[in-house]
Design goal:
The structure is a homodimer. Chain A is elongated and about 110 Å long. The longest helix of chain A has about 35 residues. In chain A, the strands form three sheets. A five-stranded parallel β-sheet of chain A has the order 7-6-5-8-9, with helices on both faces. A two-stranded antiparallel sheet of chain A has the order 1-2. Chain A has two domains: about 450 residues, Amino acid/polyamine transporter I (Up-down Bundle), CATH 1.20.1740; about 130 residues, Rossmann fold. Chain A starts with a strand and ends with a strand. Helices cover about 60% and strands about 10% of the residues of chain A. The N terminus of chain A is likely disordered. Chain A is an alpha/beta fold. The interface between A and B is large, with 101 and 101 residues.
Amino acid sequence: MALIDKESGTTVLLRPGENKPPRTWRSWLIGRPLATADAPHQTIGKAIGLAVFASDALSSTAYATQEILFILAVAGTAAFGYAFPISVAIVVLLAIVVLSYEQTIHAYPNSASAYIVTRDNLGEFPAQTTGAALLTDYILTVAVSISSGVAQITSAYPGLYDFRVELAVVMVGLIMLINLRGVKESGITFAIPTYFFLVMIFSTVIIGFFRYLTGTLSGVVEPPELEISHVAQPVTLFLILHAFASGTTALTGVEAISDGVPAFKEPRTHNAGVTLIWMAAILGTLFLGITFLSTQIGAIPAESETVISQLVRTAYDGRGVIYLITMASTTIILIMAANTAYADFPRLSALMAADGFMPRQFTYRGSRLVFSRGIIALAVLASLLIIIFQASVTALIPLYAIGVFLSFTFSQAGMAHRWWKIGHLAPGQEVQERGSVLKYESGWIPKMIINGFGAACTFVVMLIFAFTKFIDGAWIVLLLIPLLVFGFSAIHRHYRRLASRLSLRNYPGDPRLSRHRVILLVGGVHQGTLPALRYARFLSDDITAVHVSINPEEAERIRHEWEKWGNGVRMVILESPYRLLIEPLLDYINEVDARRQPNEIITVVVPQFVPRHWWHNILHTQTAFILRINLLFRPGIVITDVPYQVE
Amino acid sequence: MALIDKESGTTVLLRPGENKPPRTWRSWLIGRPLATADAPHQTIGKAIGLAVFASDALSSTAYATQEILFILAVAGTAAFGYAFPISVAIVVLLAIVVLSYEQTIHAYPNSASAYIVTRDNLGEFPAQTTGAALLTDYILTVAVSISSGVAQITSAYPGLYDFRVELAVVMVGLIMLINLRGVKESGITFAIPTYFFLVMIFSTVIIGFFRYLTGTLSGVVEPPELEISHVAQPVTLFLILHAFASGTTALTGVEAISDGVPAFKEPRTHNAGVTLIWMAAILGTLFLGITFLSTQIGAIPAESETVISQLVRTAYDGRGVIYLITMASTTIILIMAANTAYADFPRLSALMAADGFMPRQFTYRGSRLVFSRGIIALAVLASLLIIIFQASVTALIPLYAIGVFLSFTFSQAGMAHRWWKIGHLAPGQEVQERGSVLKYESGWIPKMIINGFGAACTFVVMLIFAFTKFIDGAWIVLLLIPLLVFGFSAIHRHYRRLASRLSLRNYPGDPRLSRHRVILLVGGVHQGTLPALRYARFLSDDITAVHVSINPEEAERIRHEWEKWGNGVRMVILESPYRLLIEPLLDYINEVDARRQPNEIITVVVPQFVPRHWWHNILHTQTAFILRINLLFRPGIVITDVPYQVE
């Protein structure tokens, strides 16, 4: 089997050759296992990079306008006129955020993930907060994008509306499987649907504008009913801010490029930076265009038909083939957006697990080299959200975006702090700090101002969001993030304490063992007991066989047989008047343990019956197993299973 | 703790003194544990015996009439006239069965359980069939009695009808708890409700007859609607037989006295026999009376109100206090009938488990000296039936009674066979046969004829039942009984094979062990590993430490630390290109195992991390546990857990 590869000191390195794991149902589902050496290393250009990283951001145009209108609807359809100015404000915010991120990309060419930027510049606690915010946000990205994708489908095929939750959960599951397979994202698989969506949606917007300018753009035919139909409330500042907060979901996903800088071709920071600006320009244009046209045609926000669907069928005069193709492209881009979270969530949880803030299992790569546990956790949590909120985008939106803006704020504040530190270094001085090197740069003041302004803006937006959407559901996230941070800290403390306890620094060395006391459990005298007795005799001369007696006649029989087969080993019969098996044994072992001398070790030898088929176990009492569970929490007692098989 | 009580040879008997198990939530729920010596030994007289054993049989009068009417209703209310003649036929059948059982009681003074009678006279296969029939029947006794009890309650309080399933399941659970406590059935606790029921129901019947004879008995006021209201079918022979089959449920429970002969005062067979005749007389009278009056008042079979309820409120002119008291007494007797099954099912399953046909755990007495596992199994299965059949007596009836008649047939056929054997012995000759002694008796021919006739009658009734109720649900039982018999046989084969494999007859003795090879698993070099290393060095000089390497840098670090701490023990590093932990270890152990010499034993020492709190386990991979499960199925490999606690 093995090739002896290296021998140094007393150590031998074995490299098993071709022993690939056998094909199982799992390999059928997610593909054959991949070796660690198979990890891909490839880089991408700007056009492909846009396609790979922009789907999350661009897809939010499919619901951002609708969510603004949903809020304004409280004040009646007349208030829809405010939608366009609100969108302009959001695009200005987009520009500020993008400008701030441009600087981050150049400062962190390896990965400008908000978690890393916060961790390196602001420390552990803000980093954990950012991590909690991002993780909730990724879960919501999946839930919102898939729910919106399903809403596009049910807009085109209203008969499917009743099955929206099932459809959404199945989709989440399929994307999970695809990600567990870990398809090598060749770039082209992303480019086709992204550019397909861009072509279709821009065509719609351009045709819409052309018809608007030529005066041939009609209103929506048979718009869905306005669901909030009670007496119109007045337009207040709160309402405007509320609508603005809903619209800021358009910004979710713009950070994706900064996470993925290492994937770009060299000069990678330049390429990533240019791609980010392209993406922002496309996103801004699309969002403004869709909002403008939607208000012009009098689109109505509704669960039963999306605003995009109303816009597309008005632009093309009905539900024709082009309508269906455009809706399909929108659905696909939304599914791709969810797919982005399947890359982000496992990567971040692995990063945080490696830092000791999450269970270490999240760092393990599965058979297909992906962080399987993170992928499965994401799918389960997103499915739960979809089921709880019945796949309604409008119900999910109040939970969304707050995490995004929290992480924006922290990472940009971290950048501002970094510029401040850089500005206070002597020219030429270099400081090693948490993996990155700080070096004096001139012009740090405007850079600090840009990042600081970005942080301030996103912070204010986050407050607006939390305030206006508190009762709609933002409170859930505001409660959840501290709880998560608390959990991360507890996990971190556990690992740290454990590491210090297990550390061999100042380890005094083990005392020499000199006595070995063996307790052999005997349930009956038969061919299964004797190998255990033989093993016990091999371990030590100081053996006590112990039998728990429930039935005096049975005990007498065992005593008699033991005289014959027990090789002179002392037997203790424990009477159990209450017909308990484990408790008298534990009492006895405790008593022996209490009289234990220093340098004495106690081994409990348990004959373990192994049936031919696992389901035969139900025909036998699992004394050995129950005893093990009870003894595991005793220090200094070793448990030895001597198996006996019937076959 | 212990008192050394007896010392013989090398054996010591310890009797733990006062160490009663602590009070737990379980002892709060079902009472403090009882010592084996506490088992009660008391006998009862005829009047109490009637109360204890007759509740099951007598309670069936609460639904037997109604079930006859339900079937006849298909032919319209005019067909109800057939109910009384059918009841007469059933009472004749009752007389035949009772006569046959009288003889069984005298022949089996220790327990005339159908299972034992069949086993001793017809052999294993018929005995298993009888056992299967009886067990299904006991489950159905609980389901039918409780459902009927709940139907009496909902007749009095129709508002509770929607909660009938919940009510029934809660009742099953309560009776389970009472039986897990193992209330010492003092006889009086049975006598009060049974005689209370007899007084109330006989009063109703007597008043009904008085009013019938004086012409003052009116029809039912506002009877429930006849649920089967389509075009009336003609009265066919099939319909009559069908109604007869439904009515035979009145006979369920008559075998109870024959099971309980040892509980009677001496002369116990005489007392039990007299009690059986009393019971049959009361049952027959009540059943005929109720059927006669019900047809006279035009009672309508319905799920919403029981026939008993209609009869009682007609006899007493409305739902007054006496009505409520009578209904309460009926409900209580039905619950008592269910309680009978809680004694029978666990006893029979313990008997069959002792014979090796059911998992041996059924023979264990719980902390309260009752067969807890049988009680819990019965409650779970009966609850399932109640939920599946929505607590409808009419839906459950087609499954009931077939098992009763099957066991009647087998036990009486067994008795007939026994008389035949007795008749063919020489006078004065005694034959020991399966625990009972056969001795020539004169007059065996009429006795054989009586039992044979009883067997023939019940066999025919069983066929009628199976035929007329096949599609209504009897097929379920006809399928289930062979499956159960198959299962019993498989279990029996397993235990028999195991016993022969484990037998020490012809055991050649163990070869002497001469070599001990120890494999020590090393996940990391820390304070948890070193006690395991120390233990391994104590076991043998031939130790190999094994580390599975997923990360080459980590492996290099461990190799380095091992040089320092490993005491010169050889280390093997297994490269795992597919990042698997268990599989490379198993491959390695297999390879070592393949090269094992005779008289060599292999021990795998696993350092087992024990966290302070069990839930900390989610923060650690359970390698030791997974490895154990995988290795348990390997012969000749001993697994040793050396625990290390952090605290």
